[in-house]
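Researcher: Structure prediction, please.
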Amino acid sequence: MSTNHADHPISAKPQISVIIPLEHHRGQWERCWQSWNTQTVDKSVYEIILVVTADFQEHTLLNERSAACLEFSSSSNDTDLCAVGAIKARGRYLLFTEAHCWPEPDVLKHCLEAINVHPDWAGFSCLSLPITHNRLSKASANMYLADIEHAVQVRSRPKNLYQCFVTRREAYEHCGGFKSGLGHFAEWVLAASYFQRGYKIGYFPKAKFHHYYSGSISEIRAFTLNFVTGEMRYFGGDHHKPNECLLEIPPEWICRRNFDRNTARAVLHIAVKSLYPLGKSYRRLPRSIMRIGRWILPAIFGDRIVRISAAAAAVYARITLLLAHAAGSQKRLNDQFRKYIAALIRAQRLTVIGSQGGMGRDAIQPSHVGSGLDVPTLNATGFYPLEQFQGSQFRWSETAAAVHVFVPAGLRRIRIDCIPARDLFDAKADFRFFVDGVRIPSSQLSIETDRISIELNITRPQIITLGWTCRPFLALADPRQLGLPIKRIDLNNDPVTSDDSFKRVAAFAS
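Model: Predicted structure follows.
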């Protein structure tokens, strides 16, 4: 909720609305404020909207220095404050920035130039020049600038939008603006929304901003935790549509079912069953025991051990960062800073997933499987992160794995489509499939070059646990225990016509 502290002056609508959240100013808000009030363009061209938290105490000082629109908000997150400012803005263009950034005097002049020269741009980012004052601030700038440069110049999809970002108002509103409750991750979501709707975002380095890096570990940690918490809320909420894949799915999120206690027990159950019968060859016994051992800890402790391990790794990374800060070279400090941030991100992702109950089993509704399940949508246990093969996404399963699939009643066929990375006809692969722990006889299996079909007779609509075991596929320079390279799982929802082969199909029901 926000209230106006100062009324807009009675004048024609400005062309650009400069929106500045004053929460994380790092002691630089006065310099930021002065720089915006000394722009070379006429003051009728733009307005400044300052958005502050309810406990902000220096509004009188701001109003004494220059007339402005001051908005109060109950939120304390920068992107939420930006959203409030956008609602109150009157300009055709919105310029989002931060209170610890200050512009060159000709920034608005160059922004108008970009608007005129590139009418096809729905928005554009400006050049961010780092201001550093200690070794940690240099390490921080080194990492974040490398990421920004990669996003802007290599991927042509800038993700850090409000350091210095200008956008047409209608494009911003059409894309839904900054989503509340996602913290700093809302920037990435908004950038993805622009891309999804076909809007072009440019880069105009003639418009220059100075960005102050504090070099404070506590502040860096707070920012990172805020971002990651929003990231996990996004993937676990209604905003995320798995099939769109506009944002890279974090490995901790897509592999979260690997640590669900219930499904780990189901995979452990079929791994134990795969021990029997051993037949005449005992050479696969060590591999089978290894497969069983892989699932014992998740079956007992769920995600607890992996979360503790990740938290310990983050603590260790912070200690090594402090040691590098005290005695290491700048290069070593830069390396340890990146490692610390990576460890912190992983630990926080797992913490948020665990706190949100994200390790539990989702109920898959029939509408989700009408046209099949691509790998990002699989409710799967025993899978590695997403990979690419000839433009298609796929995931390797482990040598023991399971997926949950909703199956209507009747004679049905489940098809597992794979990429051509493993010879499915290889008899040594020893594929075994299970439904809710019951072995599927070979008469119900059909194996093609890149597809496995399974025929089932389901007595009532239900979510089944489809599991399998196999021998590991040995890939060059890949130490993982690779199972099936799955691209998609399709379900034939139309009842299959009964024939002689289906007379042998057993009925499954939980």
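Model: Residues 1-10, 359-371, 498-510 have pLDDT under 50 and may be disordered.
Researcher: Thanks, that helps.
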